[in-house]
Amino acid sequence: MLATLALRAGRAVSHMELVDELWCGSPLGNPRNALQAQATRVRKVLEAHTPMHRTTVLRSIPNGYLLDVPAECVDANRFLDLASRGGAALTTDPERAARLLETGLRLWRGPALFDAGEGLRCASAATLFEERRLTAWEDLVSARLVLGHNTQVIAELQQLVAQHPLHERFCELLMLALYRSGRQSEALERFRLTRKRLDEQLGIQPGAGLQRRHAEILAQDPGLAQPGALAPDRRVTTGV
């Protein structure tokens, strides 16, 4: 219940929406009483952490409930804002981008909405947050590579690749970091392992971006040393 209300902090959530989220269509003898019992439990937890001068954070309103806090008090909203601003600053101010993204990623304590039940709203939000988390990691590593921290990010990227072996962008960034650190053979081996895993588990070949990175490393493309090599949609240029 708290997660559902926090996802819409400062806005009303109807009784019907809450019942649907908490019990996922299971029949209830008295939905209103069930919600009141949940609300009482939530209030006890919240009031233990609420300053004395504040009124109750969880408010009952006609036909629903409202979590009476600013949206920016919810870590999920803070993360999305920091990730968005960090990604926007990547090409113009990589140092600022890295600071914003690091701050956003430090808000995480585990999988998004891990114990929030099976309701559609929380499940959809969890998927969104996890996708944005991966994008934030991509942007953070890209910012560090733009800043020239090639060797320093290798261990971090190896961990990300191990955790998300089918996420091609992490593999692509790791290949670039290895190549820039004078480890071309390891970069090519990483491509081989990822291609093998994609074929065995999904029956597909690497995407255009990863194949392009492989070709650039084979050709020792001078452009790999440039900041533009970090752009996901970079195209190989040929002299004419």
Automatic annotation (TrEMBL):
An annotated GO BP: regulation of DNA-templated transcription
Gene3D superfamilies given in the database record: Tetratricopeptide repeat domain, Winged helix-like DNA-binding domain superfamily/Winged helix DNA-binding domain
Coiled coil (residue ranges): none
UniProt domain OmpR/PhoB-type: residue ranges: 1-69
Organism superkingdom: Bacteria
Keywords attached to this entry: DNA-binding, Transcription, Transcription regulation, Two-component regulatory system
Pfam families, per database record: BTAD (PF03704)
Record feature DNA-binding region, as residue ranges: 1-69
UniProt cross-references to PROSITE patterns, sorted A to Z: OMPR_PHOB
Any one GO molecular function term: DNA binding
Entry annotated with the keyword Transcription regulation: yes
Alphabetical list of PANTHER family matching this protein: TRANSCRIPTIONAL REGULATOR REDD (PTHR35807:SF1), TRANSCRIPTIONAL REGULATOR REDD-RELATED (PTHR35807)
Similarity comment: family membership: Belongs to the AfsR/DnrI/RedD regulatory family.
Name of the protein this chain belongs to: SARP family transcriptional regulator
Organism whose genome encodes this protein: Streptomyces klenkii
